[in-house]
Design goal:
The protein has about 260 residues and is of the alpha+beta class. Helix content is about 50%, strand content about 10%. The chain has a 4-stranded mixed beta sheet. The protein has a two-stranded antiparallel sheet with strand order 1-2. Strand 3 and strand 4 form a beta hairpin. Helix 7 packs across helix 8. The relative contact order is 0.15.
Length: about 260
C-alpha cells in the first residue's frame, strides 16, 4: 500500500511574519556595514560575489509584494514542503537577473525598497491572500515560511563569505526553515522506515521500508539545524558531515546521501 499523502504543516502567520521581518532586518543591518572590498569578495555560490548574494536577498524578499500583486483569482496549488523542489529549473534565469540587479543598483536603496515593500505587503494582506509563484499559487501564510528559507540559507552564505560578519539567526525563522526542508525530504522520499531528527525544531519519518511503530526506530539520523540546512541545500555533502561528526546515522536505511540535496 502506498504511503498516505503527507499533511501540510501549519505555520503561525503572525510568528512567521515577525520572523521574516526580523531576519531581513538582521541581514540589512549587516550588509550596510560591508566595505567595497568585502562586497567584491567571493562566495560559495559559484561566480556570485558578496554583492550579488546581497542583491539576491532583496529580490527574494521583494517577491512577497510582487507575488501578491500578480496573483489573480484562483486557489492555492503549492504547499510549503513542495516549494524547495521547484526552484532548480529557474536557477539560471535567477542568476542572470541578480547579476544585473547588483550591477545596476545601489544596495542601500535595494534594501530600503525591499524592506518597505515587505512591511506594506504584510500590513495590507490577510494570511489567506494568494501569492503568485513560478510553479503555482500559494497562500501568504504558506509562502512566508519559504522566505525564511531564502533568508536563513543566504544569511549562512554571507556569514561563510565574510569572516566575522556573524549575522544572527532569528530563532523562529531558523525553525521554519528547518521544518520546511525536513518536510521536503519526507515528501521526496515518502515512507516511515527512517526517522530524521533535527532538534529542537523537527522530526520526520521518511524512506520506504518496514514501518516503525514502537520503541527506538531501527534507522535514525540526527543533526543540528544549520548542518541540516547546509545538507538540504548542497552547501555541504553527506560524507563530509558524517566524517566531521556533524551527523549521526544508524541503521541500514539511514544513509541519506542519495536523497540530498533537496534544494539546489
Amino acid at each position: 500500500m502506498p504511503p498516505a499523502k503527507r499533511k501540510s504543516r501549519v505555520y503561525n502567520p503572525d510568528k512567521t511574519r515577525t520572523a521574516v521581518l526580523v531576519q531581513f532586518g538582521n541581514v540589512a543591518k549587516a550588509v550596510g556595514t560591508l566595505t567595497p572590498e568585502q562586497l567584491a569578495g567571493p562566495t560559495r555560490l559559484g561566480e556570485w560575489t558578496v554583492r550579488e548574494l546581497a542583491a539576491h536577498i532583496t529580490m527574494a524578499t521583494s517577491a512577497v509584494a510582487r507575488g501578491l500583486a500578480a496573483a489573480g483569482p484562483g486557489t492555492a496549488q503549492l504547499a510549503p514542503q513542495d516549494w524547495p523542489m521547484t526552484s532548480a529549473p529557474y536557477a539560471r534565469d535567477i542568476a542572470t537577473y541578480v547579476t544585473g540587479l547588483a550591477a545596476d543598483n545601489d544596495l542601500a536603496t535595494l534594501y530600503a525598497e525591499a524592506g518597505q515593500s515587505l512591511e506594506r505587503a504584510l500590513a495590507d494582506h490577510p494570511a489567506d491572500a494568494l501569492v503568485a509563484n513560478r510553479t503555482g499559487n500559494m497562500t501568504l501564510a504558506d509562502y512566508l515560511p519559504t522566505r525564511t528559507v531564502e533568508l536563513i540559507v543566504h544569511t549562512d552564505d554571507l556569514n561563510d563569505a565574510v569572516p566575522g560578519l556573524d549575522i544572527p539567526y532569528d530563532r523562529q525563522a531558523l525553525a521554519a526553515c528547518t521544518r520546511i526542508l525536513a518536510d521536503a525530504l519526507a515528501t521526496k522520499a515518502p515512507g516511515a522506515s527512517t526517522e530524521v531528527r533535527i532538534p529542537p525544531f523537527a522530526v520526520v519519518q521518511c524512506v520506504e521500508g518496514p514501518r516503525h511503530t514502537r520503541g527506538t526506530p531501527p534507522n535514525v539520523v540526527e543533526t543540528d539545524p544549520l548542518t541540516w540546512i547546509r545538507l538540504a541545500t548542497g552547501r555541504t555533502t553527506w560524507s563530509a558531515a558524517v566524517e566531521d561528526a556533524l551527523v549521526s546515522a544508524s541503521g541500514e536505511r539511514a544513509d541519506l546521501a542519495g536523497l540530498l540535496p533537496i534544494m539546489a
